[in-house]
Automatic annotation (TrEMBL):
Residues 2-114 form the Response regulatory domain. The lineage of its organism: Bacteria, Pseudomonadati, Bacteroidota, Cytophagia, Cytophagales. This is LytTR family two component transcriptional regulator. Pfam families: LytTR, Response_reg. The modification 4-aspartylphosphate is found at D53. InterPro entries: CheY-like_superfamily, LytR-like, LytTR_DNA-bd_dom, Sig_transdc_resp-reg_receiver. Residues 143-245 form the HTH LytTR-type domain. SUPFAM superfamilies: CheY-like (SSF52172). Residues 114-133 are annotated as: Disordered. One of its GO terms (molecular function) is DNA binding. SMART domains: LytTR, REC. Signal peptide: none annotated. It comes from the Bacteria.
């Protein structure tokens, strides 16, 4: 698994790198001391996992994640402070490690990463050969939120929105929550119909009513029903390629 370490303390990066030598599946592809260094590395190297400090000069760890365009890597926070834990999981963090990081605790975090990988494997080619397939607009799915249940055709779902460790589905006048990460959901949805607009949203292309230029080279799409979703600059390039003749 391609891994990037982001921490402003060189000693902390060195210690984490030493501990990660115990996990042969982890391939460290780079290190960054701050968000300005990390963002172009994330764009170029496309790591699958970030070990991310929170308090750093310039943008903090949360602001770095908000700046990532397109599909974000899985994240394990590493910090000397415990007061950010709740906010960390609002950002879909797989784990939250307090410094100094202990090997046993790191091992638990790596195990969570592996579990998350296994959870998304059915959407891969190997998974499809085992009977799983991408879900398209004509597929129906069972959705349960509390005491309410729906059997909904995916073509009716106009928008998927990340809400921490949950995803909110928008269809008709309903907005149920399902316990699943947006990354895992994206891997199951047919990209012909469903497009990752930004870090928080997947849109149903069939529901687009209006497209407008937006800030910094992005786009603003309006869905039937009035939802307005920003397509990030990086995703806007893919979006134009996807919909061009």
């Amino acid at each position: 698994m391609k891994t990037l370490i982001v921490d402003d303390e060189r000693l902390a990066r060195n210690e984490l790198r030493r501990l990660l030598e115990n996990f042969p599946k982890i391939q460290i592809v780079g290190e960054a001391a701050n968000a300005d260094e990390a963002l172009p590395m994330i764009d170029e190297l496309e790591p699958e996992l970030l070990f991310l400090d929170i308090q750093m000069p310039g943008k903090n760890g949360f602001e770095l994640l908000q700046s990532i365009e397109g599909k974000a890597p899985e994240v394990i926070f590493t910090t000397a402070y415990d007061e950010y834990a709740i906010k960390a999981f609002e950002f879909n963090a797989l784990d939250y490690l307090l410094k100094p990081v202990e090997l046993a605790r790191l091992s638990e975090a790596i195990h969570r990463v592996e579990e998350e990988q296994h959870a998304t494997e059915p959407s891969t080619s190997a998974g499809q050969s085992s009977g799983h397939k991408l879900l398209g607009e004509n597929d129906q799915v069972f959705v349960k939120d509390g005491e309410k249940c729906w059997f909904v055709k995916l073509g009716k779902v106009r928008l998927f929105e990340s809400m921490g460790n949950y995803v909110r589905l928008y269809f008709d006048d309903q907005k149920p929550l399902v316990l699943k990460s947006l990354n895992a959901l994206e891997d199951r949805l047919d990209p012909v119909t469903f497009f990752r607009a930004n870090r928080k949203h997947i849109i149903n292309l069939q529901w687009i009513e209006k497209i407008e230029p937006w800030f910094s080279g992005g786009l603003l799409v309006t869905l039937r029903g009035g939802d307005k979703i920003e397509i990030s600059r990086r995703q806007a390039i893919r979006f134009k390629d996807l919909l061009s003749l």
